[in-house]
Amino acid sequence: MSSSLQVKPPSNLLVPLHVPYKLLLGPGPVNVPPRIQIAGTLPVTGPTNPELFQIMDDIKQGIQYAFQTQNNLTLAVSGSGHCAMETAFFNVVEKGDIVLIAVKGIWGERAADIAGRIGADVRYLSKPVGEAFTLTEVEKALAEHKPSLFFITHGESSSGVLQPLDGMGDLCHRYNCLLLVDSVASLGGAPLYMDKQGIDILYSGSQKVLNAPPGTAPISFSESASKKIFSRKTKPPSLYLDLKWLANYWGCDGKPRIYHHTGPVTNYFSLREGLAILAEQGLECSWARHRENALKLHKGLEELGLKLFVKDPELRLPTVTTISVPIGYEWKDITTYMMKNHDIEITGGLGPSTGKVLRIGLMGYNSTQPNIDRVLIALRDALQHCPKNKM
Ligand code: PMP
């Protein structure tokens, strides 16, 4: 029979879907535990069903707990960590606003790119990868640039640095500046107190310590940030990420909730369960477990003769560990070997850390002693079998 179709059904789609299991010990996403996988199989609901609004309310409370905040404007955006990053900049920043970006890895670079695209006057405060900023350095830059917003990454997953945040909020507020913090790679894995630390805008992602699939990103705004957002002179450049709409959809504006976009309901179910697991375990237990397991991993790596990339032990991110690429090896040989022979994902560097580091993630459900043992055995094997002195 002749067909009017010029494009035939793709033959690849006519064979069953197959996704092999890998142990995901890179910087994310991480393996999704059964309880969260099951949540993802529940029936899809309409975007304005009362049951869905209840689940969204649960998520909001879960985020308030994970962030340690009472902020009313707290929700999950429909997208990955980058989407939360854009939500923050698109809503808080207007053309010409001075923003100061702390760059010590890829995430500051990405933030500066986003801010530049919306016409912000972007200023930089930079450090080499592997280091963190001091309050004195930040204060000097605030005094010099007088920004309305300061961006900094808490868990710099490209370098493995945990940025200390105590005192940062007060400092920014003394300079009439809002503090925006990226906690995609650190939330639930290292102490973070949005309200106590004076963070005005905080965002994270679903696919790291929260163990949910990628696709939703928690975000929260302080009273001061909300004031700036709702008194802006121009509309944000994205309707999809416009917080006036999102505040209503997430029940944060006290008005009847109406359709804005079709929320990724299946991902909401998974995120709700990820937050529920964190609430059951307790944040402090989660922080302690990530720290203990990171220390065990660090010890094992040093016993293999490997060098941790972050020199100061206090600045090591418990969720993502960076190792200097061992001399004589090609980093990609090691990651490829581990994937091929052990079904384990670890990764090389990203942005400015590319070629310098290997990255091992121990996050959420994956932060366990058996996984530490597995990754160390696989690494030892890779070091024995990958070609050396290729340089
Ligand atoms: N910030 C940090 C610190 C991250 O680790 C990541 C993801 N690796 C992102 C932002 C971006 O998140 P996503 O990939 O979910 O867009």
Question: How would you characterize the overall build of this protein?
Answer:
With 391 residues, the protein is of the alpha/beta class. It has two domains: 23-29 and 282-385, Aspartate Aminotransferase, domain 1; 34-279, 3-Layer(aba) Sandwich (Aspartate Aminotransferase, domain 2). It contains twelve helices and 14 strands. The chain has helices spanning 34-39, 50-67, 81-92, 106-117, 135-145, 168-174, 223-230, 243-249, 265-281, 283-303, 331-342, 369-385, and strands spanning 23-24, 73-78, 98-103, 121-126, 149-153, 155-156, 161-162, 178-182, 201-203, 216-221, 320-324, 344-345, 347-348, 357-361. The strands form four sheets. Strands 2-10-9-8-5-3-4 form a seven-stranded mixed sheet, with helices on both faces. Strands 11-14-13 form a three-stranded antiparallel sheet, covered by helices on one side. A two-stranded parallel ribbon has the order 1-12. Strand 13 (347-348) and strand 14 form a beta hairpin. Helix 10 runs parallel beside helix 12 and helix 11 (331-342) crosses helix 12. The longest helix has 21 residues, at 283-303. The model has no long low-confidence stretch (mean pLDDT 97). The site of 4'-deoxy-4'-aminopyridoxal-5'-phosphate (PMP) has 14 residues, from helix 3.
Question: Which key terms come to mind for this protein?
Answer:
391 residues; alpha/beta; Aspartate Aminotransferase, domain 1; Aspartate Aminotransferase, domain 2; 2 domains; 14 strands; binds 4'-deoxy-4'-aminopyridoxal-5'-phosphate; pyridoxal phosphate; EC 2.6.1.51; alanine-glyoxylate transaminase activity
